[in-house]
Amino acid sequence: MPRLLMDRFGRMHDYLRISVTDRCNLRCVYCMPEEGMEFEPDERLLTFDEIAEVVRIVAGLGVRKLRLTGGEPLVRKQLEQLVARLSAIPGIEDIALTTNGIYFAGKAEKLRAAGLTRVNISLDSLRADRFALITRGGDIRRVLESIEAAYRVGLAPIKLNVVLMKGINDDEIDDFLQMTRERAVQVRFIEYMPIGHQDEGWKSKYVPLSAVLERCAARGWSAEPTEAVYGNGPAQSYRIAGAAGSFGLIHPVSDHFCQTCNRLRLTADGNIKPCLYWSDEFNVRPLLGDDAAVEALFFRALGMKPESHEMAQALVNAAMSHTPTERRMSQIGG
């Protein structure tokens, strides 16, 4: 019987998030600064061969679900080739992609044919001018085309990620909720997290997701908890009465979901991250070629995973039990 990736708190880890690049074609305000980012040279990124080797090994330890992230994963050329290789690994049952949607429409059919099963598309505003400001130059028309392409090729359920920010897009909550009433999507409202920046700028933009349920009540919409959408991870799911779709609340700051965490992360430069928020990382690249050593490193990383990420402490400048990461979200893979 193979060992499975269970940590000291009894949490089973069957989900690996894989960043394939730290580069992105956008500069979203919550993810990276407009200028000054230093990206990894290509030779420091894991190759497709190396990623496939890691996945083959962890599939033997019970990993069943994968998510490809970035940066923007579709700036990595021929990503469909990696998807095809990963989908062929015994034990892998689900491969999802998180994308900003700029390039996805042109790749949707190839990715689906290669074995992609689901997609999350970032859409932080429904207003073209505001979307361009948040993303620092993104064209919302291309994202909307990608959503339609995901429908067309059968990548369901379609999830739309909305990072909620005070004074920036929190006045669009009603519009996103209305979208779920009309279309079979899940809009996932995500709290703004202090990843790589715990400054006062983050705090001034933070919005607890209780605001979403408050808007439902204000509009007279009855929103009831509903069965989680497949692959929904930490989101608490709700459906407005009579709605075609649903919405999810992902609130790592106001109400963390660490007790059910089932995920590990592999950064584009080959580091295993047991927790998104803390700085602990374990580089797997030098060990590739030795399956036993790679397995041992995953168990070592898992042994360092704390019970909680303590992000809420950043809101009140309280002491923390570990050191928060200095890496930006784009460098980790989210």
Automatic annotation (TrEMBL):
Gene3D superfamilies: Aldolase class I (3.20.20.70). S-adenosyl-L-methionine binds at residues 30, 71, 122, 193. GO terms for biological process: Mo-molybdopterin cofactor biosynthetic process. Binds 2 [4Fe-4S] clusters. Binds 1 [4Fe-4S] cluster coordinated with 3 cysteines and an exchangeable S-adenosyl-L-methionine and 1 [4Fe-4S] cluster coordinated with 3 cysteines and the GTP-derived substrate. [4Fe-4S] cluster 2 binds at residues 258, 261, 275. Its cofactor is [4Fe-4S] cluster. [4Fe-4S] cluster 1 binds at residues 24, 28, 31. The keyword S-adenosyl-L-methionine applies. InterPro entries: Aldolase_TIM, Elp3/MiaA/NifB-like_rSAM, MoaA, MoaA-like, MoaA_NifB_PqqE_Fe-S-bd_CS, MoaA_twitch, MoCo_biosynth_MoaA/MoaC, rSAM. Residues 8-224 form the Radical SAM core domain. It comes from the Bacteria. Its EC number is 4.1.99.22. Keywords: 4Fe-4S, GTP-binding, Iron, Iron-sulfur, Lyase, Metal-binding, Molybdenum cofactor biosynthesis, Nucleotide-binding, S-adenosyl-L-methionine. Pathway: Cofactor biosynthesis; molybdopterin biosynthesis. GO terms for molecular function: 4 iron, 4 sulfur cluster binding; cyclic pyranopterin monophosphate synthase activity; GTP 3',8'-cyclase activity; GTP binding; metal ion binding; S-adenosyl-L-methionine binding. It catalyses: GTP + AH2 + S-adenosyl-L-methionine = (8S)-3',8-cyclo-7,8-dihydroguanosine 5'-triphosphate + 5'-deoxyadenosine + L-methionine + A + H(+). It is an enzyme of class 4 (lyase). It holds the Pfam family Mob_synth_C. GTP binds at residues 17, 67, 98, 159, 263-265. Catalyzes the cyclization of GTP to (8S)-3',8-cyclo-7,8-dihydroguanosine 5'-triphosphate. HAMAP family: MoaA_B (MF_01225_B). Belongs to the radical SAM superfamily. MoaA family. Monomer and homodimer. This is GTP 3',8-cyclase. It comes from Paenibacillus athensensis. The gene is moaA.
